[in-house]
Amino acid sequence: MSEVPPTRMNQQVFKGKKKAAESGHKLLKKKADALKVKFRDYAKMIAETKGTMSTDATTAFFSLTQAEYAAGNFKQKVAEGTLTARVRVGAGIDNVAGVKLPVFTIYETGGPADNQSLGLIGGGKKVVQVRERFTVFLSQLIKLASLQTSFVTLDEAMKVTNRRVNALENVTIPKIQNVLDYIDRELDELEREDFTRLKLVQGKKEEVTVNVSDATNKMSKLDINQDKDITATFDAQDDEDVVF
Amino acid sequence: MDVGKLVAVIGDEDTVSGFLLAGVGHRTADSTNFLIVKTDTKLQQVEEAFLNFSQRDDVGIILINQHIANDIRHVLKDYTQTIPTVLEIPSKEHPYDPEQDYIMQRVNMYLGGGN
Amino acid sequence: MSTPKGPHGGLSDFNIHHGFIEALIRGMRCSFLKDADYHHITQCENLEDVKLNLSETDYADAVADMTVLTPSDLQAAAIKKLVTEFKYVRTQAVEPLATFLDFITYEYMIENIMLLLKGALSGRDINELLAQCHPLGMFKDSTMRSIPTFEPNAKGFADLYQTVLVDTPVGPYFAMFLQESSNAMGGEVRNVIEEVEIEIIKSSLIKYWIEDFTQYVEKLGGETAEIMGDLLKVRADTNAINITLNSFGTPLNEPAMRASDRKRLYPAVGHLYPSGTSMLTDVATEEELGRVLSLFPQYASIWGVHAAGSDKSIDDAFYERDVMSLELAFESQMHFGVFYAYVKLKEQEIRNLVWITECILQAQKDEINKFVPVFSFHAPWRASASKAR
């Protein structure tokens, strides 16, 4: 701060800086609040979705048991043969208060299902049911995955924003304020110096004038004596021209 | 490479079979996107599978049974990437326990902590 | 071994040749869980209690050394128990019953052979695959030992098929299937197995097996031909109906596939064959299937269960009907059907146990009674029969 020359110019500059920092702080604070609201929303949604997920999972797993009862042990066949992912996730981006949140969307290639004929000799309908139940479960999970990534990203973003808010509040703004105070102080000091100097100068001037008047008095006294020679002191330019 | 990322699954036979039926399974000449964890599956295999899935850029989500996640918690703790997202899911025999889920711990901290 | 002439599955000489094992298997009837046992088990709160209850039944030894009971472990142990019993009976059997018993195992062999071929093709560890095979369908020891020695690549695969599996009892079925398919697929074994879905191959093999089995049973003649023949016929019909029903929504239901591929899966035996199956060929929707089945009284009622859309599925209806006819087959005498009935009923019992334990494990108490008990006094057909009396 000491390297800042305490000038009016700099005062102006720093006043500008302070203003910018304060409005920045206000904005960031707003953002932090917005993020916090979102964050709480997400937290709530996660808690809810995780709750429903358990029930979805239960029905999904139970459908598997039902299918096994009807179709025999087909599980070992599921993982056989060629497999091509029919369900994938697309990654999109959601924007919350300037924070980019990754969003997964379920994305079906529309390709044919693998091992379509499972349970052909019996239980095929139940196997179809397993497919459906697990698809529901999966879409639920993909939703949850989005929420969860968003949650983590928001968490991170919130930390950063809060850090910035705090930095502005506790470091940057006080620093600028300090500089401003310093400049003020210095300027005051300068002013005071100026004042005293002026005073001094004035005093001196007054002294001088007093001296001068003394001298003139003396002179005039002297003049009385030398009154005769009035013309001697006469200066034609001293007087305004008298115009008649 | 087609559009869209894969969903990888690490789980017991029931979980994996179910998701394969839902259509997430993908097998190429040299890799699969799922691991069936049985009682005799070595921990190291699970760890390797997880590290492999998490480093593949065609994987968007990793689903893992919670009881298996607990076994490789030390690996999961060090995992900081956002994508692929790791999701802990219940299994048939082990109902979901929110207490053990890192994300849920944070969620509960926020919701429960009043804030 | 000399094969006696004349019908073998009949009254005339049954007891001379097979009386002892028939007695054996009848003695095993008491090993089935009773109504009371089921009642106790379904009341259990956890699997620990189930184990406790089972230790008072015939499953005591099977569950004795389990520290924690899980449905899959229970299933494995129960199957093992069944296999032990079956093997014991098999060692006592003389021809032609021995062949008959072998025929029963072929069904499981088909399952295993599919598992091995498909698994080996996708590069799975063959030892792991062997562990998953159904123990009742295990091949000869020499065959089993040689299977893991093949390399998990294309050449090893071809060798595996050509040198080992062709020689197994189900090899001929496989050869028949390949011959039928190779016209369409260009011949290579590998291609066929790669291209055709495992379930479709299996269905084809099962079809050949049913046909073959029926032929054998008919050759035996006597009571066996009558009772066992009927069981197989019904089984053939069940498969045909199921295949049709389950093909809806899959490529198999496409018009071109219906006549070629789907029709080929219908067994050429059974009550539906030939007029019914030829009608099934053209069926494309559930309504049409219902219309065809309404012509066959014995299936109309089962279809009714499905059409009514209650929580009972067609599979449950088939199971119920199967259990009834198997029980009746088990109770009658002087034929080989008892052995088949025993295995199938035991299978149902194992299915029940798995169902009950799974329900307990997953806390699905509402569903727990949706199984078909074996030799139950509360079975609908028995209950209504005793009421009529």
TrEMBL record, chain A:
Keyword field contains Transport: yes
Q: Does the keyword Transport apply?
A: yes
Q: Which UniProt keywords apply?
A: Ion transport, Transport
InterPro entries in alphabetical order:
V_ATPase_D (IPR002699)
Q: Which Pfam families match?
A: ATP-synt_D
Citing just one GO molecular function, the answer is:
proton-transporting ATPase activity, rotational mechanism
The record's family statement is: Belongs to the V-ATPase D subunit family.
Cross-referenced PANTHER family: V-TYPE ATP SYNTHASE SUBUNIT D
What protein name does the entry list? V-type h-atpase subunit
Species name: Chaetoceros tenuissimus
Automatic annotation (TrEMBL), chain B:
Q: Carries keyword Lipid biosynthesis? A: no
Q: Name one GO cellular component term.
A: proton-transporting V-type ATPase, V1 domain
- GO molecular function terms listed in the Swiss-Prot or TrEMBL record: proton-transporting ATPase activity, rotational mechanism
Q: Mind listing the UniProt keywords for this protein, alphabetically?
A: Hydrogen ion transport, Ion transport, Transport
Pfam families annotated for this entry?
ATP-synt_F
Q: PANTHER family in the record, alphabetically? A: V-TYPE PROTON ATPASE SUBUNIT F, VACUOLAR ATP SYNTHASE SUBUNIT F
| Family per similarity comment | Belongs to the V-ATPase F subunit family.
Q: State what protein this is by name.
A: V-type proton ATPase subunit F
Automatic annotation (TrEMBL), chain C:
Q: Which GO terms describe its cellular component?
A: proton-transporting V-type ATPase, V0 domain
For this protein, the record's InterPro entries field holds:
ATPase_csu/dsu_sf (IPR036079), ATPase_V0-cplx_csu/dsu (IPR002843), ATPase_V0-cplx_dsu (IPR016727), V-type_ATPase_csu/dsu (IPR035067), V-type_ATPase_csu/dsu_dom_3 (IPR044911)
Sorted UniProt keywords? Hydrogen ion transport, Ion transport, Transport
Q: GO terms for molecular function, please?
A: proton-transporting ATPase activity, rotational mechanism
Q: Does the keyword Ion transport apply?
A: yes
> Do you know which SUPFAM superfamilies this protein is assigned to?
V-type ATP synthase subunit C
Tell me, in a sentence or two, what this protein's role is: Subunit of the V0 complex of vacuolar(H+)-ATPase (V-ATPase), a multisubunit enzyme composed of a peripheral complex (V1) that hydrolyzes ATP and a membrane integral complex (V0) that translocates protons. V-ATPase is responsible for acidifying and maintaining the pH of intracellular compartments and in some cell types, is targeted to the plasma membrane, where it is responsible for acidifying the extracellular environment.
Q: Which family does it belong to?
A: Belongs to the V-ATPase V0D/AC39 subunit family.
Quaternary data: V-ATPase is a heteromultimeric enzyme made up of two complexes: the ATP-hydrolytic V1 complex and the proton translocation V0 complex.
Q: What is this protein called?
A: V-type proton ATPase subunit
Instruction: Specify the species.
Output: Chaetoceros tenuissimus
Q: What is the lineage of its organism?
A: Eukaryota, Sar, Stramenopiles, Ochrophyta, Bacillariophyta
